[in-house]
Amino acid sequence: MLKVAIVGATGYTGEELIRLLVDHPKVKITSLTAKIDKPQNISEIFSRLSGRIDLQCADLESVDDVAAISQVVFLALPHRVSMKFAPQFLQLGRKVIDLSADYRLKDTELYEKWYKVVHSSPDLVQKAVYGLPELYRAEIKKADLVANPGCYPTGIILGSAPLLKNGFVDVSDIIIDAKTGLSGAGRKAALDLHFSEITGNLKAYKINQHQHMPEISQELTNLAGESVKIVFVPHLVPLNRGILSTIYFKKSRKMGLEEALDLYKDFYKDEPFVRVKPSGQFPQIKEVFETNFCDIGIWTEQQSDTLIVISAIDNLGKGAAGQAVQNMNIMYNFKETAGLL
Ligand SMILES: NC(=O)c1ccc[n+]([C@@H]2O[C@H](COP(=O)([O-])OP(=O)(O)OC[C@H]3O[C@@H](n4cnc5c(N)ncnc54)[C@H](OP(=O)(O)O)[C@@H]3O)[C@@H](O)[C@H]2O)c1
After folding, report:
1. Which residues line ligand 1 (CB under 6 A)?
2. Does pTM top 0.70 for this prediction?
3. How many CA atoms lie within 13 A of 94 on its CB side?
């Protein structure tokens, strides 16, 4: 059994990692740590894990102690914090799957601008592999450090890839309207995330200012082979989990709905976690809840200049912990769907 450590085990993605990994046929969770005053059994912290795991969660006092009992380390830590620990685990010969944004942006200056901190291990940024299996599976297989993608970027990149890769749309005019549930913001209390602030409400925030902007641009640019221009409008909706992204493209050539659907079906034909909806059907957050699926639906008409792609993921599933487990499966040559289907 592969010995697994989760750092940041008391957060939302930490909890989801535990929920997935306790049932994984090839894995044993050997270490759970966070920023915590005194050790506490994880099933007391998350009572839904009661009866499924009996392990203390302790303060992350010593990287050496965690490394001594684990082979792979999931960092479910806030950005800016992960980069303090990733180099130490790597130095000790452990593989690292980082759920934060610290190693996702290849341009360190861009990272520093958006995350307002000096990067402490820019050399590792270049070695890190962006952990989106549908695009980087071969590189993930060989990686020591995987930068697990952000939640919004996952659904948006998967929803855009076939069109951009084939040059079928205008890359200077991509509009993304995306809606997320609240767990995307993590478990820490914040006034604007209170039930009373959110329930019965729907609001846009951080238009073209969201920290996922440069990550989306980086990957869409890689796919298109030229610089893309996006407008990104994120929204908060009164849901616990899930992201629905509606992406508006301008076609650069005539394309009907059947052709577009065939393009997507063909692009994702070997992918276990991307499901393309039939004509006239569109993804729903409910249908990807607590799964590692990304569902994609398409609308266009032959005579229309516009093509709309809608993608749905669970932000804690394919948008975080599920995808991290998928990456681990690839790195260790396990069945890619192990623990996830
Ligand atoms: N939530 C999502 O949907 C989502 C999706 C994709 C990616 N991500 C990324 O995944 C990472 C984790 O997100 P999350 O939502 O799980 O956040 P979270 O709920 O706020 O959890 C963060 C965890 O990190 C721990 N922590 C913070 N500082 C620490 C330190 N110095 N040493 C040890 N542990 C420390 C926290 O412990 P305490 O609680 O004790 O402080 C907690 O266990 C973030 O970088 C986030 O951007 C999140």
Report:
1. 8-14, 34-36, 60, 76-79, 81, 99-100, 150-151, 183-184, 186-188, 315-316, 319-320
2. yes
3. 27
